[in-house]
Amino acid sequence: MKKRFRLRDKERFRQVRDQGKSYIGEYCVLVTLPNGLDFSRAGFTASKRVGKATRRNRAKRLMRESVRLHFEQIEPGWDLILIARHPIVGADFHQVEREVVSLLSQAGILRSNSPKEVRK
C-alpha cells in the first residue's frame, strides 16, 4: 500500500483503538473510526501473544495483503486497524482474506457496488 494509505502515527493509532468500534473475528480484530479525509487508511499490529517476530510479521503480511486486494472497495474516510489474534498462526491466506472481507462488511465500510470475488 502507498504511504498515504498507511496509518502509522502513534497518537492516531491510539485514538482509533480507544474511540473506534471493534469487530471481532477468529483471526483478527478490526477497529474503525471515521477520519474526515477523502481516503481511508489502514494500520496493522500483532502483539507478542501471537508469537515471536517471524509469526507476528507473517500475521501482519497476511492482513496487509488481504486489505490491499480489497482496498478500492473500502469506503473513503475511515481509519482502520487490524489486530492479529493468536489463531492466525495456523491460518492460511484465504482464511484470513475471507475473514477480513467479512469484518469489513460487518463494519459497513465495504462498497457493495463493485464486488470482488473472494477466493475459496
**SS-derived structural category:** alpha+beta
Note the quaternary state here: single chain
In total, how many beta strands? Answer: 4
Distance between the termini: 24 Å
Strand content: 15-25%
**Widest sheet, order of strands:** 1-2-4-3
Average residue pLDDT: 91
Biggest beta-sheet profile: 4 strands, mixed
Structural summary, described in words:
With 120 residues, this protein is α+β, with helices and mostly antiparallel strands. The protein has three helices and four strands; from the N terminus they run H-E-E-E-H-E-H. Strands 1-2-4-3 form a four-stranded mixed β-sheet, sandwiched between helices. Helix 2 packs across helix 3. The chain is globular.
Keywords summarizing the entry:
120 residues; alpha+beta; 4-stranded mixed beta sheet; 3 helices; 36% helix
Task: Spell out the blueprint of helices and strands.
Blueprint lengths: L9 H10 L1 E4 L3 E7 L6 E5 L7 H18 L7 E7 L8 H15 L13
Parallel strand pairs: 3-4
Antiparallel strand pairs: 1-2, 2-4
Please summarize what this structure is.
By secondary structure, this protein is an alpha+beta fold. It has 3 helices and 4 strands. Strands 1-2-4-3 form a 4-stranded mixed sheet, sandwiched between helices.
